[in-house]
Amino acid sequence: MTEMVLLTGISGFLGSHIALKLLNRGYRVRGSIRNLDRSDEVLKTLESHGGAIKNLELVALDLTKDDGWSEAMDGIKYLQHVASPFVTKMPKDKMELIRPAVDGTTRAITAALAARVERIIVTSSMAAIMYKKDHDRSIPYSEKDWSDLDAPSANYYTQSKTLAEKKAWELMEEAGRRNDLVTINPSLILGPLLNKDPGTSGALVLRLLKGSIPAAPRFIFSMVDVRDVAEIHIKAMENKEAGGQRFATASDNLSIMDMANVIKAAYPQYRGKLPKFEMPDWVVRIYALFDSDVRSNIGEIGLERLIEASRAKNLLGHEFISSSEALIATTKTIIEQKLA
Predict the structure, then answer these.
(1) Which pairs with CB-CB distance under 8 Å and at least 24 residues apart come from 294-297?
(2) 90, 131 Cβ separation under 8 angstroms
(3) What family does this belong to (predicted)?
(4) How many angstroms from the chain centroid is the CA of residue 234?
(5) Catalytic position from the list 89, 133, 161, 240
């Protein structure tokens, strides 16, 4: 019998790419979505990109509810827990992010342990690694680092991803099965869209293409291609030596101005929409008074975080796509989807 994988969050940007790779490798996939009303949309997206949907079934699972988790694990060999709380704006109450992230991870892992699932992969984030109070910025962040919840730059999202990943390791330690868990810590995920949903990362590129950022704040992002992140999820699942490890997944860094220049070179027809200069920091600080998204990241102006992601190369044999290539792929598919 072909091995079956439970993939939570299959409708998301990363989840759909993981699903495609699993199906193309011959796995059977049981994918979870919050509401089965979206089934046709998910099936259409995957089938349109060559996914063998005859080997796919969909189930309804909610991070905040117990219903269905034990049943979803029936016959499962591997768990890919990708689902995460989604918000378009930072909530006023941090528990709106933290509770479903931690409780959802707890539900997924508890059910997987009870079903004796062989290998559990949890999607975490570089947010759980690179927000520390005292860190020499000349030293790259790596898998040994953990974010401090009380760091000035640790917003609610950072706290939710850090606490959820720590809960995953805690549960596996308590069960005596630490080496059956792998966590994947991606930076800002770009790459080709599979449908018209740009996601949170693609939304930044879409804003650039629509002329919504006339001057570029000095924000610098570590980026990674979604195809790399999906591939590492599967390599970590299949590679015995990956057990008990965290994997930082990041390519090179780009500032918003760098992003604009990359897009301009590849798609000069958008030159008039893209920012032409960097916004002075004092202007950004004034702008933050009126924009909650900018305000929540104001401490990041001009800060560049270096990331050591060699474990994926050394242990899994993985080479990363450049951030510029990932950005161009995002831009290309946004244009193809007629979003900009």
Answers:
(1) 294/217, 296/90, 296/155, 297/155, 297/219
(2) no
(3) Belongs to the NAD(P)-dependent epimerase/dehydratase family. Dihydroflavonol-4-reductase subfamily.
(4) 15
(5) 161
Active-site annotation holds for 161: yes
Q: Which residues span the domain enclosing 278?
A: 190-223+251-340
Whether residue 21 is contained in a domain is answered as no
pLDDT in tens, 159-177: 999 999 999 999 999 999 9
Rounded to whole angstroms, the Cα distance separating 131 from 153 reads: 7
Question: Residue 50 is which amino acid?
Answer: G
| 243: in domain | no
What is the mean predicted confidence (pLDDT) over 106-125? Answer: 98
For residue 84, give both structure tokens: 């995460």
pTM for this predicted structure: 0.95
Q: Is residue 48 part of a domain?
A: no
Residue bearing tokens 């992601």? 309
pLDDT at position 292 over 80:
no
Tens of pLDDT along 219-249? 999 999 999 999 999 999 999 999 999 999 9
Tally of domains within the chain: 1
Q: Token pair for residue 223?
A: 């980026």
The whole-angstrom separation of Cα 324 and Cα 248 is 19
Q: Tell me the two tokens of residue 11.
A: 């409708």
Whole-angstrom Cα distance, residue 177 to residue 179? 5
